[in-house]
Amino acid sequence: MIFISAVNPLKSSVSLPKFSLAEILPWAIFIGLLLMLGIYFVGVEQGATAIFKGAYVHEFVHDSRHMLGFPCH
């Protein structure tokens, strides 16, 4: 005996929201800038490219620098 289901498993009643590029672009730029700023402080902030005087930023992000594979000493 063959049973036929009334529910089609291939059709879903859940629809995904649609976003336009104008809605996503400001957030993408903001997140990109945050990532670039974070990479700068973890990977580059020391020596000739330092914005802040002293080694305070370097010491603050020292362990994360090693964890992410950036050499520092």
Topology:
Blueprint: H1 21-43, H2 56-60, H3 62-67
Compose a concise summary of this entry.
With 73 residues, the protein is an all-alpha fold. The chain has three helices and no strands. The protein is elongated, with a radius of gyration of 25 Å.
Give a verbal description of the structure.
This protein has 73 residues and is an all-alpha fold. The protein has a domain at 46-73. Helices cover 47% and strands 0% of the residues. The chain is built from three helices and no strands. The protein has helices at 21-43, 56-60, 62-67. The N and C termini lie far apart (75 Å). The model has no long low-confidence stretch (mean pLDDT 80).
Give the total of beta strands: 0
Q: Which bin fits the share of residues in helices?
A: 40-55%
| Morphology call | elongated
The N- and C-terminal alpha carbons lie at a distance of 75 Å
User: What's the gyration radius in Å?
Assistant: 25 Å
Order of helices and strands: HHH
Structural class: mainly alpha
Q: Kindly estimate the percentage of residues that lie in beta strands according to DSSP.
A: under 5%
Count helical runs. 3
The parts where pLDDT drops under 50 for at least 5 residues are: none
Average per-residue pLDDT, rounded, comes to 80
